[in-house]
Design a protein that fits this description.
By secondary structure, the chain is an all-beta fold. It has no helices and 12 strands. Strands 1-9-8-6-7 form a 5-stranded mixed sheet, with no helix packed on it. The protein has a 5-stranded antiparallel sheet with strand order 5-4-3-2-10, with no helix packed on it. Strand 2 (13-16) and strand 3 form a beta hairpin.
Length: 149
C-alpha cells in the first residue's frame, strides 16, 4: 500500500478500488491532424498531446478502456478527477493522482494516493521491504506487518 508517492514505469500495474490499471507508452508518436490542400487544419477542439496511456485491465488480462494522459497530472476517482469510475464503491471520491515531471530531459511518472480509505497498491517488480505497520495485498487479502511483543 502506498504511503508516499512512488515512481511508476511503462508496464507497471496498480490497483485503486476494484480498478486494475497499467501505465503504457504511447504506441505511436502523437501527431496533429494533417493540413489539407489549402494548408488548413480541420475544425475541432485542440488537445494537448498525451505523454502516456493508462489501460484498464479486466479479469483474464483483458484490456478494456484506454485513457490518454495529458497535462502535468491526472486525478483518478469515483466522483472527482480526470478519470472517474462512478460504479466503484471501493474508490474514494478523488482517490489517486498520476503526476508527470521532466528534469534534465528525463520523464518521471509518480503515483500518489490522495488519502483514500481503501488505499492504492502498486504491483512490485521484485523483492521489497515492508516496514512494520506497512500493508500489502495478495489477491483479495490485505496483510499488515506488525511486531508482536
Amino acid at each position: 500500500r502506498l504511503t508516499e508517492a512512488a515512481a511508476v514505469y511503462p508496464g507497471d500495474h496498480f490497483l485503486l478500488g476494484n480498478q486494475l490499471l497499467r501505465l503504457d507508452r504511447l504506441e505511436n508518436a502523437w501527431q496533429e491532424s494533417p493540413l489539407d490542400g489549402q494548408q488548413v487544419r480541420g475544425f475541432g477542439t485542440p488537445v494537448k498531446p498525451p505523454w502516456a496511456l493508462l489501460v484498464r485491465v479486466c479479469v483474464g488480462e483483458i484490456e478494456d478502456d484506454r485513457y490518454h494522459l495529458r497535462g502535468g497530472e491526472m486525478t483518478i476517482g469515483r466522483e472527482e478527477g480526470d478519470i472517474v469510475f462512478p460504479g466503484d464503491s471501493f474508490l474514494s471520491r478523488a482517490h489517486a493522482r498520476l503526476r508527470m515531471a521532466v528534469q534534465d530531459h528525463n520523464m518521471t511518472v509518480l503515483l500518489e494516493d490522495l488519502g483514500s480509505a481503501n488505499g492504492t497498491y502498486l504491483r512490485l517488480r521484485g523483492p521489497a521491504t515492508v516496514p512494520f505497520g506497512g500493508m500489502f495485498r495478495v489477491g483479495d487479502q490485505i496483510f499488515r506487518v506488525r511486531k508482536d511483543s
